[in-house]
Amino acid sequence: MRIKRSLQAAALIAAAVLLGLFTVQGTYALWNATAVATPGTVSAASFDMVLTPGTGQATTMTLSNGTAATVALSPNGTLGPGTPVHGALVVTNDTNAGGQFNTVITAGTPAVANVNGGTLAGYISVSGKLAATTAECGNATGYLGIGTGLASLPVAKTASAIFCFQVSLNPGAPTSVKGQAVNITLPLTARQCGVSGGC
């Protein structure tokens, strides 16, 4: 009689274990069924910097085809010995990335090239400064040689940095350079804070 009850108890335990395995397997199958996610859309944030010269015509730093934008700065007057000219450029952090996205904008070393074989470039110097308003660009104080670059402080999303550039003619320039022209190129770069050395 004891043997029969032991067999019945063993069968009941075996059934409970089997039922337990079925439950676990059923739950596992349910997990598999709900673990599949439907495909979604992933969008990359834009890293747009808007360049606005004194003329007010804004453009993004990188065009839609991936090339760098070119912005022309119009000087405020006529360049002459002792009479520098200047221009303002507003650079706005226009990214739509989430979270904090501060950037540092750097104006690189200027390149001055003669037009039509002239010699004027040798008598031109370019300097720059950062300002709180574009009107400050007209104040001759504070301009320094750009050298290896002029960098802004970190610029937050929707905020701007104002760069002032001044072009001067060496007072000892010969009269032969009168009427000559030069092209001045100032490369701008923008870097997100925390990337490649931070801010």
TrEMBL record:
The identity of this protein, by name, is: SipW-cognate class signal peptide
Origin: domain of life: Bacteria
Per the UniProt record, the lineage of the source organism begins with: Bacteria, Bacillati, Actinomycetota, Actinomycetes, Micrococcales
